[in-house]
Amino acid sequence: MACRRKFGIPWPECNDGLSYDDVVRISDSGLTLIEFYSTKYKSSAPLQGWLQRIKSGQITFDGRVVTDSNAVLRVGSKLVYHRLPWKEPDAPHMIEVLYEDDDMIALNKPSGLQVLPGGLFQQRTVLTQLQWEANLHKKSHPVPVHRLGRGTSGILLCAKTKLARARLASYFADGTSNIGGKRNTKQEIGKIAKIYRGLASGIVENDQVTVNQPIGVVKYPGVAKGLYVASESGKPALSVVSILERNVQENSTLVQVKIQSGRPHQIRIHLSFIGHPLLGDPLYGVGGQPKCLDCDSIDESFAEDGGYHRPIKAVPGDCGYNLHAHKLVLSHPLTDEIIEINAPLPSTLQTPEEAKEIASMKQTFQDV
């Protein structure tokens, strides 16, 4: 059933910190505490950062705080790194519900809100708000079945049951695998399709462009698991780009992009690959590559908590672009009924005709 309620609890000043547990394996026996952490969790902090964490009493060894970085590990011992609470960057907390039934819920995620915990955002996420909302009503919380970039707004689908979660996850997996070969230009029929609105830089000449550039991963400063980019050795990806409005004065093009499931950052990469990155995208430049790939060496200095400073160059979670998951069409995971969900368009992504229609509707409501 359709729904337009909102929910959200304001974020506290600081989060609760985190704890990371490890049990010493045979292969790690005999290592010192600093050898263990500076090699196993190298992406978390430089050597000097881990030394600071140990000396400040943030690590326990079999339940006891240990400040000796040269303490030798024993097989089976339990290590816990206690990450201190910190103030996370600003993020919206109110979320609109677009659709809800007994099996799933569709949210209108605001730009600037991360979906799942990661990096600096461990509490200020959609998942946390879902947990808090469920706790208020003493119910199990829904789980997102796909992701949207932090700077991307629009429809986020979540499952309320294990069966719905499994079936929806299979829809997304099938939607990607059905693309076929790297050069297949046919949009296969699947059980889910997503339509986005975006504001691309420059004037796109053709009224419709099919992009089937594979997407792979490369090493990138500040992104531990690597950055997704256009890559001939990557996995197949297919985007169908339709032109809605060309704005010569602003040198921008309003586009609609249809994908089935999708690779991470697919639309950002594909639009930049054809020479028209999303307007304001701080990360991707022309060609489906980051604006700066090899020009940022690793900064071995560390922040107050011992971890690395935020990378100087842009990272995937940075905002500034206009991309909105506008429409989602899928087969219901339990009934197979065709469901269409729409997220209201931000004003920057409306055509002039749509803007006039919305303004007219608002005026009509005011006059009633």
TrEMBL record:
GO biological process, one term: enzyme-directed rRNA pseudouridine synthesis
InterPro entries: PsdUridine_synth_cat_dom_sf, PsdUridine_synth_RluA-like_CS, PsdUridine_synth_RsuA/RluA, RluA_PseudoU_synthase
Reactions mediated catalytically: a uridine in RNA = a pseudouridine in RNA
Record-level Gene Ontology MF annotations: pseudouridine synthase activity; RNA binding
Pfam families found in the cross-reference section: PseudoU_synth_2
Domain Pseudouridine synthase RsuA/RluA-like: 104-272
SUPFAM superfamilies: Pseudouridine synthase (SSF55120)
Protein's name according to its UniProt entry: RNA pseudouridine synthase 5 isoform X1
Organism: Vigna radiata var. radiata (Mung bean)
